[in-house]
Automatic annotation (TrEMBL), chains A, B:
GO CC annotation: membrane
Membrane-spanning parts: 480-511
Protein's recorded name: UDP-glucuronosyltransferase
InterPro entries: UDP-glycosyltransferase, UDP_glucos_trans, UDP_glycos_trans_CS
Subcellular location: Membrane
GO terms for MF: glucuronosyltransferase activity
Key words of the record: Glycosyltransferase, Membrane, Transferase, Transmembrane, Transmembrane helix
Reaction(s) catalysed by this chain's protein: glucuronate acceptor + UDP-alpha-D-glucuronate = acceptor beta-D-glucuronoside + UDP + H(+)
Membrane topology: Single-pass membrane protein
Length: 522, 522
């Protein structure tokens, strides 16, 4: 349980019952996060409407928690092959030298991003151009928009409907939410995807600067233009995607500084990293029996998240063979053909109750791809990690655990039975990994209020106060040259230039006169 | 009461009883803040030792809350005439045009500051050179140093003793705490003393930039050198005052964003603005009778804080005459000779229970100098303010209330009976002042936990976890040219220069060859 007694159930006086909340979630693992919050909001009497894709993977249309409204499907959204294809491409990049491979991956993501924003822009345009749909939303008289801005639909729709906006956010535009909302000095704030940490040498900072410049290029030359037509037709002049995002009232950021490197932040950023974690529940009887059968050696839990559950055959064979040599038992969330090298100690399952397993006293190690949810669960329950990063932020996430001595990382593209077994044995035998993650766990749980209560408080705050305008910095509304005071700097340069010129002129004049007088005398 | 049910009394599990806390406070109004926290810490079983000046104004040597250790007196510390002298000088500045007067005041403060740091440096040197004193402190085995870094003694002593450090802070070095700890874009973050708000035009930004440059000059050429001898003799090479301040674990900042303009912040900044406020207590019978005698018109409360209680005779006469014309009753904290123009409706007192008066339902208006404590009390109790700023931050403080429509400001140097009466009537009759400050009050009280509980939580957090290193950004440790990536920028310029040079060279070569061939053919 969280190391704090400030719990929402005790907070009654300021509750706003019956707030009307419009939710535009993102599918996949992002939905897992959002749903946890929606359940809590529902239990507190709020009225929730969810916009979902007609062919969503994860978001059910029928729910006791919310009413749903279907919107047209995002093209390719249900195409899991897309991610497998991406995985193969990314794994090719991983073979390149460290300085280059992050740019290779960035380039792949840009490609995907450009396509995604085009599709999104079409979808949003079709909604804004549909007066019946818009009228229906307007008639609902929502109090706030709660959205995950990893995709842009909620942001644009919420702004169009002039709703106060609460973000449940980790990713936005070209990286982690902080990079958009807060000043991020390139010298010690690693840009997302750079695989750098906060202590950088000259080469690292050069790399980080290049990533930063590339992200500025992406923002202004790839993302913003995708929506220019929508903004021209439906918003006041000068609006762009970034300005709408920066106008959000509250940013519930799925981050925590035992995980993120400390860096500047803003008054309307609320940290809710790990909010989904709670005490582990008892396992189903069969699974409990399996855990207990591991004896003193304990259990290794392996899962690679919601997007990519299947690895190349060669890799799964190596993993299975390495597992087979462990004295531990292994439970592995697995899809596809059973590896021939599978040991007797390994149980393959199509789904597993991950938090309850990680919170089980017999669990010794978590073999994970490094998705945010899994990483926070590992921290919460204090289980050391052997990371097998595959895509997106997983490399950055695992790096954060690694530099704190709480994880080891094995690259999937170069995984062999030997190096995987070696890493497994290291993390299982060397107590420093467990000590380090348990220290992170203690710090993570040591909070004045649990992050979930914090999230709910600020959502209700936005309902009560019709947003949180007084927490929004005005700097966001300045043109970039004003923000950086370049006009003032130019003015100073001109003034100093004129002063120097005048003094030189006066000096010369005096010198000449002196010289003339001298010559005259002579 | 605070709009939240998360109260410290309910938080038992994580309490650290018996933490050993070394406190280095600042005298005067700063002590009022610190003492409130010490009482709470004492009630939670912590063991507190306070270093106090042997001739302190406010800090008693005998207390049931703490043990005190006397240190030599700060020269001139008890010299209230110093502040009266300062007041006269500042009021002269007030007559200058707006652009200039803040620089005039800044210059006066620099003068005072230079003297103050010299005295402090001598005092600190005498402590560090006293092995018996240092041994006594070391033997106490304190868990943390809790200090107000407006003066430097606690910071340097705490660092010398290698104690985790918690700041109870509003002012540090050259301005408000944020300016030291967080990135502060000059384009929308007004520098302390500039009397600017966050929406600035070109001239404002130019002024702000000049104030910023001046504060950099003060930091590096006036403050830091005062201590260079101490650092040479007692600390590792490269240490300066700023580096010690930035190494503090937790900054309990006496700020709140209903008052401060929203701006970047840092993970180890905890907002405790208004932490000293609590429900008003019943007044003494006589005072209550006076309040009730005001009938429907209510009462005006006037107090000018702890430092300057006496105004020039001419001014007090004008104030008294204006008060005499009000239908309200007036209670005025006053020292000196009774004004001849005093009305029957005005009660002069040497001391008043300010929070309880401001929280009284009959109170209609607070005539205040704009010290931080009073301003937060006005916000907490929702009482509109007529500001009479005299010194230091009071101009900036009142500006923040004024731009939010919750206060009017009258300059003491130009105060007449007429303009003061006019301002009084305006604030008393125009409901917008009350509406605005009551809106601020509602927002200020709408928090997940009361600021006092937050303060105590983070002090105990620092005790439990021996500081909060994981919340400290590493950027502070970088040299300034690295922090701003100037080395990387220089490298880029060189690379681009070389590339341009090479391309020009190659182009020329090709052109020349082409030209030669052409000439040959011809």
């Amino acid at each position: 349980m969280w190391n704090c007694i400030f719990h929402l159930s005790k907070r009654l006086e300021i509750t706003v019952f019956g707030g009307r909340i419009l939710v535009v979630p993102v599918d996949g693992s992002h939905w897992i996060n959002m749903e946890v919050i929606l359940r809590e909001l529902h239990s507190r009497g709020h009225n929730i409407t969810v916009l979902r894709s007609a062919k969503s993977w994860y978001i059910p249309s029928n729910s006791s928690v919310y009413t749903s409204i279907d919107v047209p499907m995002l093209e390719d959204e249900s195409d899991r092959d897309f991610y497998l294809d991406m995985l193969l491409k990314v794994q090719k990049c991983r073979g390149y030298p460290a300085f280059i491979r992050t740019f290779c991956q960035e380039y792949l993501i840009t490609d995907m991003m450009a396509l995604g924003h085009e599709i999104l822009a079409r979808l949003i345009a079709s909604m804004l151009d549909d007066p019946v749909f818009i009228k229906r939303l307007q008639d609902e008289k929502f109090d706030i928009m709660l959205t995950d801005p990893a995709l842009t639909m909620g942001v644009i729709l919420g702004s169009y409907l002039k709703l106060p906006m609460v973000f449940n956010v980790r990713w936005i535009n070209v990286g982690e939410g902080h990079l958009t909302i807060a000043p991020s000095p390139v010298s010690y704030v690693p840009v997302s995807g750079s695989e750098l940490h906060d202590q950088m040498d000259f080469l690292d900072r050069t790399k980080n600067m290049l990533h930063h410049l590339y992200s500025v290029y992406e923002q202004y030359f790839i993302i913003n233009p995708s929506y220019s037509d929508i903004f021209k037709r439906h918003f006041p002049p000068g609006t762009d995607l970034l300005s709408l995002q920066l106008a959000a009232d509250i940013w519930l950021l799925r981050a925590d500084f035992v995980f993120e490197f400390p860096r500047p932040t803003m008054p309307n950023v609320v940290y809710i990293g790990g909010f989904q974690c709670k005490e582990a529940q008892p396992l189903p009887a069969e699974l409990e029996a399996f855990m207990q059968s591991s004896g003193e050696h304990g259990v290794v839990v392996m899962s690679l998240g919601t997007i990519v559950s299947a690895l190349p055959r060669k890799t799964t064979e190596a993993i299975a063979a390495a597992f087979a040599e462990l004295p531990q038992k292994v439970i592995w969330r697995f899809e596809g053909e059973q590896p021939s090298s599978l040991g007797n100690n390994t149980l393959l399952v199509k789904w597993l109750p991950q938090p309850d397993l990680l919170g089980h006293p017999k669990t010794r190690l978590f073999v994970a791809h490094g998705g945010t949810n899994g990483v926070y669960e590992a921290i919460y329950y204090g289980v050391p990690v052997l990371g097998l990063p595959l895509l997106f932020d997983q490399f950055d996430n695992l790096l954060r655990l690694k530099v704190r001595g709480a994880a080891r990382v094995v690259e999937a593209y170069s995984l062999t039975k030997e190096n995987f077994l070696d890493a497994l044995k290291d993390v299982l035998k060397n107590p420093s990994y467990r000590d380090n993650i348990q220290r992170l766990s203690r710090l993570h749980r040591d909070k004045p209020i649990p992050p979930m209560d914090n999230a709910i408080f600020w959502i209700e705050y936005a309902i009560r106060n019709a947003g949180a305008a007084h927490l929004q910095a005005v700097g966001f509304k300045l043109p970039w040259y004003t923000y950086f005071c370049l006009d003032v700097a130019a003015f100073f340069v001109v003034v100093i230039g004129v002063l120097v010129w005048v003094s030189v002129f006066v000096c010369r004049l005096l010198c000449c006169r002196g010289f003339r007088r001298k010559t005259k005398k002579e």
